[in-house]
Amino acid sequence: MSIQDQRKLIEAIHPFGLLSKQRMDALMQKIDIAYYPSKTLLISGSISSIAFYIIIKGSVTEYIDDEVHNVYGAGDSFDADALIYGNTKAKFIVEEDLICYEIKKDDFLDLMQDKHVQSYFLQDFITRHKQLKDYDAQSELSPFLISKVSDIFLHVACVVEANESIHSALERQEELGAKVIIVKEENGYSIVTDTDLRKKVLLGDNNLGKDISTIATKGVIAVEINDFLFNALLLMTHNSIKRVVVKDGTEIVGVLEQLDLLSYFASHSHLVAVQIDKAQKMDDLKAIGHDFKNLIITLRAKGVKVRYITKLIAALNEKVYKKLFEMSVPLELRDKCALIVMGSEGREEQMIRSDQDNALIIKDGVEVELFREPMMRLNGYLLELGFPKCAGNVMVSNEFWRRNTSSYKTLIGKWTYNMSDESVRNLSIFLDAKCIAGDCALLYELKNYLHTVFHARDDVLAHVAKAVLNFETPLSLFSGFVIEKERNDKLDLKKGGIFALVHGIRTLSLQYEIKATNTIERIKELNNIGVIDKTFATELIESFDTLNAIRLKATLEAKSVDEGNSINPRNLEKNQRDLLKDSFKVINKFKKFMSFHFHLNMVV
Amino acid sequence: MFDFFSKLKVNANRKNLKNRNFEFLFEEDLSGEYVVFDTETTGLNPKEDEILSIGAVKIKDNKILTSQTFEVFLKNSKEINSKSIKIHGIRPFDLRDAKTTKEGIVEFLNFVGSRPLVGYYLEFDVSMINKYMKPLLGITLPNRMIEVSEIYFDKTISLIPQGNIDLRFDTILKNCSIPNMGVHNAVNDAIMTAMIYLKLTKGK
Questions:
Q1: Closest residue in chain B to residue A25, using alpha carbons only
Q2: Are A32 and B178 in contact (CB < 8 Å)?
Q3: I need a surface site. Which of A64, A97, A296, A345 has the fewest CB within 10 A?
Q4: Element spanning A556, H or E
Q5: CB atoms B185 and A97 under 8 Å
Q6: Taking residues A410-417, what's their average pLDDT?
């Protein structure tokens, strides 16, 4: 650890890497190394902070009101706030023997003259969080440069022999739904586009019995299937054409349309949506399933916020549900019921098909049994498409979730006084219900009823809200110490963070009769009516996005769905770890808010 | 009694001092600081080998004052043999701005003053310094010496009596859970030795 080594270590810590060479030189002259044995109280209300600490080894826990607020490990630094504002409510205690760099208070405040450092430390949570995220996004490879022709949807190529008549070639084109006709000639290929047909047939000699090759344009511009999409785009732009033929060696395998290419780069979603609409049978829908995952991967790599990805996926899934509903329910029954999805699907927050929660509401006066057969079929289709079976059996195939309106009302009534775990769980699932097909008025009626019976029932609400405190926020897991000791090096994102947030917001929404089902929209609504303030709302939204982003990344890399929920913080990059830690801090703040709001300390 | 003898020894040493400007080495230390130092040499024989570089750092209370690091490279009379280059990584090229041994030793003594010295196998480093100091000033380093491997031994033997205690530098680093981050050079080794010293004396 000569001066050079120390310098490298400090430069690796954001935002010190942004310092100019001169400032860095000056800083290196001012840094000392300090040692503190465990249990040392470094900073507290009465011991004001004298230095800025950067941890080389060991860990420090920050307590606010005797609760763990944050844990700092190697590479972390603290505490700018205590230095800048002169005092702090927090207590910093050495957890594991600490070796750290110290920058003295005055030197640190000097350093704050640098605008990078200043903006980093003076920012509130939200801006800092965004800055860290941006910093993170820089490292992602641009998918624009790495997507290949084989990644995209290709249209079927309509290839005909040179001596085929124009008429039969056009028939064949129609049959395949192709945009152009490719003519196989003796030495290579030629192409017939709509322009050729207009100019050479409609405006020329309109004899459809002639050989197709007589109206074809010689020479075909082609791209290799393994080539980059970017090159295909260049080819189109260069030759001002709207499509290129795709070849695998000498064989033509399809046609790449400019529209598809552009929409692939735009979002790729347009393609999937069109395919769902076009689907005639189950096999078509099955083929699309694969595209979903690709779509998620592409969008994520482009840096699209996870909340927009999930919304898009929800919209696409809704299309699939609608299609299946049409395929299984006879026309005359369709407006006598409402198909609803609940849980994560209802909140539009499901990314990977992890679960299905759905139910059917049947209009009063219509025979419930009429729907048994169609719903069994619908459930079968869903399973066939890879929607996993619901572990809690919350599916239309279960009689419990296939009732008429009045029967649902009885059920809701039960939820208000029966406080069993099962009731709370069913209520929670139902609160997220969203109507997807059929007569949606049926669901609205039930939602209104739900809000009426829960009106002013804060006692029941508190009971429901209590679950927020069920799992401890795993902040302490960030200390390498704890992980090693417990040999359980994974951290559960869902239990530790996402659940508390989703469930808390859901309960608040029930109390304030908010109709939205999406967590982020609910947060915005709660902010609009003044239950939580603007800053807190944004903090919650950003944290939720971060947790989901990290979870999504883990899920895409994991082998099973459950595996995606748990991550090892040590495998995360420093920035990701900081983002995660910040998010958990917000979750803790939210838990406190909930405890206070529902007086949870008084609920047993 | 022991104190008395060591005082006698110091006084005898002091009488030999040729240059009055270096009286400060014998004055009582009031800084409350310690100096940890390490040398890189051409070999392990103080009689034949020479110093290539000296690295030192001060300790005060629980802090290693890396802001006041001392590092000097010294000119040598002989070619550096290729075997030792592999250990200390100092190539003839690195010594192009090196100081004469006289300049280097004087700078070092000014940095150290009368502060106690801390090191790992300090005896070797001290005898290397003395080798140059004796002809120059007529004296040997008069400072109090603190050997970290000795403190480590005392602390560890109470846990495993009759045990064989591994006193290798890397083993001590590992057992004190001190990060071994840099390559071996005089300053690095001094800083790591300082960490060991703090851990052993300030830890619980």
A1: B67
A2: no
A3: A64
A4: helix A534-557
A5: no
A6: 87
Please tell me the total number of residues recorded for chain A in this structure: 604
Determine contact: B72 vs chain A, CB below 8 A: no
Q: Which of B57, B178, B181 to mutate to test the interface with A (most CBs of A within 10 A)?
A: B181
Q: What is the pLDDT of residues A437-485, one digit of tens each?
A: 999 999 999 999 999 888 878 888 888 888 888 877 777 655 443 443 4
Which of A28-37, A451-460, A476-485, A508-517 has the highest mean predicted lDDT (pLDDT)? Answer: A508-517
CATH code of the domain in which B102 resides: 3.30.420.10
pLDDT tens digit sequence for A90-132: 889 998 889 898 988 888 888 888 777 777 776 666 666 666 6
Closest CA to B69 of B152, B188, B167: B188
For residue A575, give both structure tokens: 């920035």
ipTM: 0.80
Looking at residue A142, its pLDDT comes to 47
Number of H helices, E strands in chain A: 27, 19
How high is the pLDDT of residue A250? 83
Does one domain contain both A490 and A419? no
Last residue in a domain, options A425, A455, A485: A455
Question: A137 or A547: which carries more pLDDT confidence?
Answer: A547
Nearest residue, CB atoms, A102 vs list B63, B195, B199? B63
In Å, how far is A31's CA from the nearest CA of chain B? 5
Cβ neighbours of A102 in B, within 8 Å: 63
Question: How remote is the C-alpha of A505 from its chain's centroid?
Answer: 18
Record the tokens describing residue A199, joined without a space. 């100019």
Q: List the CATH number of the domain containing A87.
A: 2.60.120.10
Locate B15 and state its tokens.
């009488």
Domain count, chain A: 4
Contact check, Cβ <8 Å, A36/B181:
no
Q: Which of A35, A39, A57 sits opposite B179 (nearest CB)?
A: A57
Residue type, B165: I
Q: SS3 of B74, please?
A: strand
**Do residue A5 and residue B179 have CB atoms under 8 angstroms apart?**
no
A 7-36: CB under 8 A from B: 9, 29-36
Number of domains into which chain B is organized: 1
CA A172, CA A182: separation in Å to the nearest integer?
11
- Chain A interface includes B202 (CB < 8 A): yes
Domain that holds residue A483: 463-602
Interfacial A residues in 54-113 facing B (CB < 8 Å): 56-57, 97, 99, 102
CA nearest B177 in A: which residue?
Answer: A57
B195:A35 CB<8 A:
yes
Burial B8-30 (b: 16+ CB within 10 A, else e): eeeeebeeebeeeebeebeeeee
The beta-carbon neighbor of A32 closest among B63, B185, B195 is: B63
Alpha carbon distances (Å) from B185 to A357, A376, A575, B102, B152: 64, 75, 32, 21, 22
Burial class (CB in 10 A: 0-12, 13-18, 19+), B114: middle
